[in-house]
Amino acid sequence: MRVHLVHAHPEADSFVAAMRDRAVAAFRARGDEVGVSDLYAMGFDPLLKAADFGERRDPGHLVYALEQRHGWETRTLAPDILAEVDKVLAADVLGFTFPVFWFGVPAILKGWIERVFLSGPFYGGRRIYGRGGLAGKRAFAAFSLGGRPGMFGPGSIHGELEQGMLRHFFQGTLGYVGLSVHRPFAAYHVPYLDAAAREALLDGLEDYLRTLDDQPTFRLPDLADFDERLEPRRR
């Protein structure tokens, strides 16, 4: 199995970096092929810009999604975008390691998604969710946050992680392009834990990844239930 990890943390000696390294080791121990995009180390540019397209469909006005389609068809996208797209398309499993910032993913990861998840090959029209361009592939996330476990979940002050503050990532991003999304591994209260507690979390992550094939996935929309609303039949 081919796994590609997208890592987003500015500190090379962080706990999230340790999660990335443990993930790489766990997958390789299973015999999987593993690649990593370390966005900060790469100096990945998260900004959308006209220079992302070597040949423009419409030189006079930038509609980013339409230019993505044209750039993919002509292979004239910026080299850094093409390199990341090719990594995603070659992978069977796409993984993400990051800290939760302001109820979401870090800005550099958001920019990676916006530049790399191309309109056309990844999604478009009715080609979303189970019909999306990445259907048949899987995704997972392992992230850290400062809050305690009791601060998240039904009836808690912050609500459920997966169905609340990160729903846009799990459903509106990963699921939207067709990925089957495993429920994530969350490392709570990390800045306040001692070394032994952090090591226990890393052991838990290793167990999670060793059994990834058996980890539950989110229930995402079934397009068959929405066909009428997506494109009403003519009568």
UniProtKB/TrEMBL annotation:
Keyword Lyase: no
Keywords linked to the UniProt accession: Oxidoreductase
Gene Ontology CC terms: cytosol
Domain of life: Bacteria
Annotated Flavodoxin-like fold domain residues: 1-204
Gene3D superfamilies: 3.40.50.360
PANTHER family according to UniProt: NAD P H OXIDOREDUCTASE-RELATED, NAD(P)H DEHYDROGENASE [QUINONE] 1 ISOFORM 1
Designated name of the protein: NAD(P)H dehydrogenase (Quinone)
Species of the source: Tistlia consotensis USBA 355
